Amino acid sequence: EAFIRSVASASTSGANRTAIIRMYKNTTLNETNYQVIDSNSIVVRDVSATTYNGGQNIFANVYNCGNQLNEDLNDYDIILQAGDTLTMTAEDIGGSVANLRINMVWVEDR
Question: How far apart are CA 70 and CA 87, in angstroms?
Fold first, then answer.
């Protein structure tokens, strides 16, 4: 199991730009290229998919790119089991968000 604890983001472009950051559980991604993060981890990542379909929206936050988002997710009880996926998206809703980074912190129970 992996317990998602927090999400953080930072933008390197545009103080007056706005985005919605969302997390979906068990979406279907196109053209994935999963990569191992750490050989001791059950978590793998993909940053190549450009579209997704379905899944359950479990988190959303409007984000002003001039500020950093640091969201404590402990109260959301986001738990991933073997075979689950977690997809994070950023949707531009004001201006052009060219460089947005999203980071996540999780704890694994083995």
Answer: 18
Bridge partners (DSSP) of residue 24 are: 57, 87
Rounded Cα gap, residues 49 and 45, in angstroms: 10
Tokens of 22: 């969302």
pLDDT in tens, 67-79: 677 788 888 889 9
Q: SS3 sequence, 66-80?
A: CCCEEEECHHHCCEE
Q: Is 5 left (phi over 0), alpha (psi -120 to 50) or beta?
A: alpha
Q: Is the pTM of this model over 0.85?
A: no
DSSP characters over the chain: -EEEEEEEEEESS-TT-EEEEEEEES-EESS---EES-TT-S-EE------EE--EEEEEEEEETTS-EEEE-GGG--EE-TT--EEEEEEEEES----EEEEEEEEE--
Distance CA 33, CA 74 (A): 29
Give residue 13's pLDDT.
60
